[in-house]
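Worked Example 4.2. Consider the chain below.
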Amino acid sequence: MDIKRLKERFFNGETTIEEEYELRQRLQEKDSANRHDAERELLLALLPQESKAPAGLEERLSQLIDRAAESEKHTMEPGRKRRSGTKRKIFTIPKITAYTAAAAAAITLLYLIDIGETKPRETFSDPKVAAVHIDETLALFAEALSCGMEKEKETAAQIGSLQAAIGNRMSEDIFK
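Applying the procedure from the previous section yields the following structure tokens:
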């Protein structure tokens, strides 16, 4: 394929990697450098450069992946005890509380926002009327937020009792 057609395909985003390497080679040739000075530097900056991976890199990566897969396989087997160096992920009450509060706030905001409304609301010309509407809106928001906080406290209490029950069960199993 001639260089003009390759350039056109490159600028249209239609070239393959091999064609881009071919275009780079042709632009770097001494006889073509003089004929394409206007676009040569731009194309050389945009075209990918050949990079060579170090010898043996693929084999080393494959070995690392195999080792990682093997260690994952051993930790996933049922009945196996956890190695002493690994930590168990535990959801603590503060984390659960934070997640619950964030979820309650998001639900409250979605409830308060009228998503289906398309026509813009008019602004208030009287500041007193605007203040009354703002107070009503803030009161609704405060009420919804307090409901969400109450639910969050109930959920945190339930989670705390579940964690205590699990802890008691685990301590019974350990001291048997």
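The helical segments are 3-11, 17-28, 30-35, 37-46, 57-76, 93-112, 127-174. DSSP finds seven helices and no strands in the chain. Compare this with Example 4.1 before moving on.
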